[in-house]
Design brief:
This protein has two domains: 131 residues, Bifunctional nuclease domain; 44 residues. Helix 1 runs parallel beside helix 3 and helix 2 packs across helix 3. By secondary structure, the chain is of the alpha+beta class. About 5% of the residues have low confidence. The protein is built from six helices and eight strands, in the order βββααβββαβαβαα.
């Protein structure tokens, strides 16, 4: 990869906004700056699930693309967020097959989702980092996953969702989450007892 690239990671996904969109935050891997990007809710849900090592019951488009790459021996080397036009970020997939490399320009949300699915590095051009990244504080922001089914969430995700639901006075949602947590705890006790 080029020297003018900065490696980043997905710091979190904010769901407290328009139901059709989410904000993904990218943070410097070796730094204290981050940038927020608006993406679609579908892509955000996939990225959130990948962050928590969860899988959807049916294959999603990014799973299918990953399988196609494997079948045809195409290696995704990484993704690069490379330019900004009219405040829209673009990205490219860096692909290797045999000794040849190819670059394909894609939406940033698709690139991030594929990178998360295939566990490859995410890079941003240094110019983009210098112009659009801002310093974040050390406090972990309260990011939670999108509309992932409760059964697919980790205990930590469930607890954060329940806390947020109570704060927003959505007691019906909080009760659903509480019931899911109790069910998990009950199942865990059964496993320990060997039932």
């Amino acid at each position: 990869m080029k020297k003018n690239l900065v490696q980043v990671y997905v710091r979190g996904i904010n769901v407290k906004n328009n139901k059709n969109f989410r904000i993904v935050e990218l943070g410097e891997l070796h730094g204290n700056r981050s940038m927020q990007i608006v993406i679609g809710s579908f892509e955000a849900e996939y990225i959130a699930a990948a962050m928590d090592n969860k899988m959807f019951k049916s294959p999603m488009p990014y799973d299918v693309i990953s399988e196609i790459f494997k079948t045809y021996h195409i290696n995704l080397q990484g993704i690069v967020i490379f330019v900004v036009r009219n405040k829209v970020f673009y990205a490219k997939l860096i692909l290797k097959r045999g000794d040849s490399f190819e670059e394909i320009v894609v939406r940033i949300s698709d690139a991030i989702a594929l990178a998360m699915q295939m566990k490859v590095a995410i890079f941003v051009e240094k110019e983009v980092v210098d112009n659009f990244f801002t310093t974040f504080n050390n406090k972990i922001d309260q990011y939670i996953s999108g509309n992932i089914p409760l059964s697919d969430m980790s205990i930590e995700m469930l607890q954060q969702n329940m806390k947020d639901a109570v704060e927003e006075e959505d007691y019906e949602r909080a009760a659903e989450i509480r019931d899911e947590i109790k069910k998990r705890e009950k199942d865990e006790r059964r496993k320990v007892k060997g039932e």
